[in-house]
Amino acid sequence: MSTSVFNSVYLDGGCLCKGQVKFSTLRKRNEHRQCVVRSAALSTRSLQIRNSKQEKEARVALLGASGYTGAEIIRLLANHPFFEISVMTADKNAGKSIESVFPHFISKKDLPVLVSTNDASFSDVDAVFCCLPHGTTQEIIKGLPRKLKIVDLSADFRLRDISEYEEWYGQSHRAPDLQEEAIYGLTEIFRKEIKYARLVANPGCYPTSIQLPLVPLLKANLIAYKNIIIDAKSGVSGAGRGAKVANLYTELTEGIMSYGVTRHRHVPEIEQGLSDVAHSKVTVSFTPHLMPMSRGMQSTIYVEMASGVTTEDLYQQLKVSYENEEFIKLLEKGVVPRTHDVRGSNFCYLNVFPDRIPGRAIIISVIDNLIKGASGQALQNLNIMMGFPENTGLHNLPLFP
């Protein structure tokens, strides 16, 4: 891989150059400024800055580029040093440029024209992000070359039990062999398995915000498997980009809307993950809500602690579990996580509070539903699968306000 090489960088009339270091003093407006000079023998021509276009190491196809998660992947990959987008599909917008669909990409002139999925060529591709709706992904992924590394952001490969998929999604699973191969992509929990995976099922946004705080506590037997109550709220982008009356501005603004009450499709995914670590069936009460904001997610989780366990024990377990994780932040005691504080980033902030009911605790977890809840975690996973540093392309600080 070739990289941009800078033979010199000019600073305040001085220069920083390659070679041996020496110091001199320049007088300007009666002040002395220090200049670091490397190899004074270099010619004037050799001091010019040389810009060479960086050659990327891996070529990526993005299926479903015209949705919110597809757009976020494009944004995250814009400055990624290793991944280059070589194919982008959007069936309804085939033949268009990406800036005609998302004008905020007008400065990105190196992106390919959108094509239909059927017309996409994968001969010159190393990896795939699949951002297509559930139910459409199985057949497409089944037809992709086996050499490709794939991260699927739909729900099609998250549930191991294909009969459970049929029950919750209303259709039979058309790629059961691939389902057996798929690795669940909750990065901080399944990092080792993800490293050697060919197909990763990227978790849903709600399950990410819920499992990250609960998995370490269940694993340590600090909370009961019953009476887990989850009140979760999401920005409207979590409902997708499709035009729906329920998602209109006048339908959502200045209000809160509960949906999927008792039957939200993320329930089996949440219970699958929690049951795995508990080695026992875990059933949760889960109610999601749409909030009048574009992005962000908060899960407020009410748990019953095991006998003799305190909220301090829960706090310390989360601290030990995530102290070396870059993207999971346990806040100082008493600090309430806010969606504003993770907006536009791959972070998950969480904290634990004592409930006024003895023996119970309240856990609050916040993420950006489009980043850690979708595209950011997908990139985190593909970085691992391709052998690149896990945090590459994910250094964006949260946006505030």
UniProtKB/TrEMBL annotation:
The active site is at C205. The keyword Aminoacyl-tRNA synthetase does not apply. Transmembrane segments: none annotated. Gene3D superfamilies: Dihydrodipicolinate Reductase, domain 2, NAD(P)-binding Rossmann-like Domain. It catalyses: N-acetyl-L-glutamate 5-semialdehyde + phosphate + NADP(+) = N-acetyl-L-glutamyl 5-phosphate + NADPH + H(+). Its EC number is 1.2.1.38. It comes from the Eukaryota. Keywords: Amino-acid biosynthesis, Arginine biosynthesis, NADP, Oxidoreductase. One of its GO terms (biological process) is L-arginine biosynthetic process. Pathway: Amino-acid biosynthesis; L-arginine biosynthesis; N(2)-acetyl-L-ornithine from L-glutamate: step 3/4. One of its GO terms (molecular function) is NADP+ binding. Residues 59-197 form the Semialdehyde dehydrogenase NAD-binding domain. CDD domains: AGPR_1_C, AGPR_1_N. Belongs to the NAGSA dehydrogenase family. Type 1 subfamily. This is Probable N-acetyl-gamma-glutamyl-phosphate reductase, chloroplastic. The lineage of its organism: Eukaryota, Viridiplantae, Streptophyta, Embryophyta, Tracheophyta.
